[in-house]
């Protein structure tokens, strides 16, 4: 795929601006997205719909079948911590199925993989090794940097109780945000190198999109400018690997 990323992993705290970045990119023309941001048509792999399906299944099992919950307790926390890693394995599985089923997939799409991880459930250092070498070997990483306070503020603002399953309108209670995402291991994970993450024997280029000033909310020109800078830098790292 000349001129475009094959796979972009988009990570950061909840409500950091990841979904707004994706929404912005999806509303661009194909030409502008390719020329300015090195991105083809986006095929998005997001673990939130998988996670939310587990919440809904547990509620249905308990309410209509008098069965024990499979994934979460009544407060919405995972019963087993390794379910966080299972979500990564599911994303990786979907990545491989896309390529298996469409011989022209890589000519048409940039795969965009989105997720969040806090230190409380293993962090990024625990999550990334559950991706395959095939995915990681194609990938670059964009980390959306916000403080916990900013993440909490935007999480409160965006939450719509009528649409808790919505990509752009879901949210977490404050106490759950604090437990799961106040502490993140990004600085530890990225600290050894300013440009590359090491996972097993591989190096993955990364860039940081600073968003404490919230350019992803109603500031499309600033968002575009900052994103273009970050992805151009990431593109140069990707090709210099």
Textual characterization of the structure:
The chain has 241 residues and is of the alpha/beta class. The chain has a single domain, classed as P-loop containing nucleotide triphosphate hydrolases (Rossmann fold, 3-Layer(aba) Sandwich). Helix content is 47%, strand content 16%. The protein has 11 helices and 6 strands. It has helices at 18-26, 30-37, 47-64, 83-101, 105-108, 123-127, 133-138, 148-158, 174-181, 186-190, 220-240, and strands spanning 7-12, 41-46, 109-115, 139-145, 196-199, 202-210. The chain has a 6-stranded mixed sheet, sandwiched between helices. A hairpin with a 2-residue loop joins strand 5 and strand 6 (202-210). The two termini are 17 Å apart. The relative contact order is 0.19. The model has no long low-confidence stretch (mean pLDDT 93).
Keywords:
alpha/beta; six-stranded mixed sheet; single chain; 241 residues; 16% strand; Rossmann fold
Helix and strand arrangement:
Layout: E1 7-12, H1 18-26, H2 30-37, E2 41-46, H3 47-64, H4 83-101, H5 105-108, E3 109-115, H6 123-127, H7 133-138, E4 139-145, H8 148-158, H9 174-181, H10 186-190, E5 196-199, E6 202-210, H11 220-240
Parallel strand pairs: 1-3, 1-4, 2-3, 4-6
Antiparallel strand pairs: 5-6
Choose one word for the global shape: globular
Trace the largest sheet across and list its strands: 2-3-1-4-6-5
Element-level helix/strand string: EHHEHHHEHHEHHHEEH
Structural class: alpha/beta
Helix coverage percent:
40-55%
| Whole-number tally of structural domains | 1
């Amino acid at each position: 795929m000349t001129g475009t990323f094959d796979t972009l992993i988009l990570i950061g705290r909840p409500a950091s601006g990841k979904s707004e970045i994706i929404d912005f990119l999806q509303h661009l023309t194909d030409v502008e997205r390719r020329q300015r941001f090195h991105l083809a048509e986006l095929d998005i792999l997001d673990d939130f719909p998988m996670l939310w399906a587990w919440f809904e299944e547990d509620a249905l099992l308990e309410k209509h079948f008098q069965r024990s919950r499979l994934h979460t307790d009544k407060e919405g926390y995972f019963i087993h911590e390794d379910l966080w890693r299972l979500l990564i394995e599911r994303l990786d599985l979907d990545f491989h199925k896309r390529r298996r089923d469409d011989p022209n997939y890589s000519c048409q799409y940039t795969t965009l993989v989105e997720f969040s991880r806090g230190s409380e459930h293993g962090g990024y250092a625990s999550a990334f090794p559950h991706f395959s070498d095939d995915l990681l070997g194609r990938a670059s990483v964009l980390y959306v940097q916000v403080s916990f306070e900013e993440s909490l503020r935007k999480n409160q603002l965006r939450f719509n109780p009528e649409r808790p399953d919505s990509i752009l309108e879901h949210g977490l209670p404050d106490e759950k945000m604090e437990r799961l995402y106040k502490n993140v291991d990004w600085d530890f994970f990225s600290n050894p190198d300013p440009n590359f993450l090491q996972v097993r024997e591989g190096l993955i280029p990364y860039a940081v999109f600073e968003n404490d000033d919230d350019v992803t909310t109603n500031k499309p020109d600033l968002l575009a400018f900052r994103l273009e800078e970050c992805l151009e830098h990431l593109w140069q790292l990707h090709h210099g690997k």
